[in-house]
Sequence to fold (250 residues):
Amino acid sequence: MSKSVVPLTVADLGAEAPCCPPIAQNRIPAQTAATLAPAFKALGDPIRLQLLSMIASAEGGEACVCDLAPAFEISGPTVSHHLKVLREAGLVDAERRASWVYYRARPGLMRQLAALLTVDESVSV
Amino acid sequence: MSKSVVPLTVADLGAEAPCCPPIAQNRIPAQTAATLAPAFKALGDPIRLQLLSMIASAEGGEACVCDLAPAFEISGPTVSHHLKVLREAGLVDAERRASWVYYRARPGLMRQLAALLTVDESVSV
DNA sequence: GATCGGTTTCGACAGTTGTCGAGTTTGATG
DNA sequence: CATCAAACTCGACAACTGTCGAAACCGATC
Fold:
């Protein structure tokens, strides 16, 4: 796999949020933990994980609720609830166009979480 | 053991299971979501996030409960509870030596979660 | 073997979460 | 304007979570 070494700068990861070094590198401050834990919590549900994946991997980078909801066994209101959790966690954005609401992933926070979990390659499993 | 009915466990994901492509690349299967959501859930608490960070960033790669517990305001049993959640999620391992119990991070799962959240660089925030 | 310190387990309790059905809002179209 | 469809909000309820104090467990040391 090609390793295009364009280093991410802090600016790439979102303006106000403090971009964190990996948790395996420095002890995470309490305030940072309090800020980022809700994002992990939002990912801690199988339905929300699938929803985010469907949104983030969708053609054009966005997905309509009318396409998301039928993919699950649960009721419409429950899907709406899960989308709200993802929204309030800062992982997705919603936009209404005509009768439909389209969701779009916000990659900034996802990158932060991924960076946080990065482990040095030399460490063995 | 019958493969077809036994649900995928966290431990199974370590060695030969194909480590998941980013959720922004392909729609994540329901079974993968069900397997990995508990790991995110375990990270969804500020205390557990700090505990994991203290463990993963500790000198020698391990940390004693006797060093972890005093770093928080909560009671000993509650720290123990959070460590159990991290353990059952597959994020840490525990080992008793003499009177003390040492915790060590399991980087395999952390790498999987990080890979899952990876977003293509070309995507703008 | 009795005791002690470190850690976990147990039982209880308040607060949160996931789920649903019913009702509400929003925009399009007859 | 009336109606319809899409999506959300509300209220309720069972299940789960974080927390604690008390008790149990496990090695070490007396």
Q: What stands out?
A: Residues 30-43 of chain B form the longest helix (14 residues).
